[in-house]
Structure formats: structure tokens, C-alpha cells
Amino acid sequence: MNIPPPTFVSILQIHQIQALLNLGLIPDPMTGEPREPNPAVARHELSLLRILERKTRGNLEPEEQRLLSESIGALAQALAPYTDPAEATPESLDTGAATPKKRRIVLPGEPQDG
């Protein structure tokens, strides 16, 4: 078995994939079918990425920081439909973009075509 080397991007991918699985946006690798959305688990993964961002501030390579910021923004956007406006906080609504727009969710390390 060829195990890839441990990298910061690997850590991002673990949390982003778990969030996307729990939003039903990518198929479950065991069944090939999307899971029933579980926004609470996806929100937890987003919170973990935000903690990672705070704890690594100033210690990441520029590309790692870009990937982390983009991951947080994409997941916040994907969670927006599940956010109750009455419970919304500035952090829960922060997508990392000045104006929200629909975009394809890209995993860290994936090419960004277009």
C-alpha cells in the first residue's frame, strides 16, 4: 500500500472531505451514494478548520494559507442553506468573499479550472 506523505494539505483534505460527505455533496465511498445531510457534523468540521487557521496564523506557507482560507470559505458557503438566520453569527456567515457567489467546491490540492 502506497501511503502519501503527511502534509498540511492532507489535514485540510480530511476535514473538508468529512464536511462534504456530511452535506451530501460527494458520494459516500462505501455506498457510492450521497449521505443524508448532517449539517451539524459539517459545521463541526468547519469549526475545526477555523481553529486550525487561528492556531497556525503566521506559520503557514502562502499556498497553505490560501488553501486553508479557500476551504473555510467554500465550506461556509456550502453550509449557508443550513444556517438558521435567527442563530447566524458573523463567523457563521463569513464565506471569505465580499459577495457570495455560487462556485464549484474544490478540495485542497485540486486544480481550479476556471
Can you describe what's shown?
By secondary structure, the chain is mainly α. The chain is built from four helices and no strands. The protein has helices spanning 8-22, 39-56, 62-79, 90-93. Helix 1 (8-22) runs antiparallel to helix 2 (39-56), helix 1 runs parallel beside helix 3 and helix 2 runs antiparallel to helix 3 (62-79). The termini are far apart.
Low-confidence regions:
95-103
Count of runs of 4 or more consecutive helical residues:
4
Strand runs, count: 0
Major sheet summary line: none
Offer a quick outline of the entry:
With 114 residues, the protein is mainly α.
Name the features:
single chain, 114 residues, mainly alpha, 4 helices, 0% strand, flat
Annotate the secondary structure layout.
Layout: H1 8-22, H2 39-56, H3 62-79, H4 90-93
Helix pairs in contact: 1-2, 1-3, 2-3
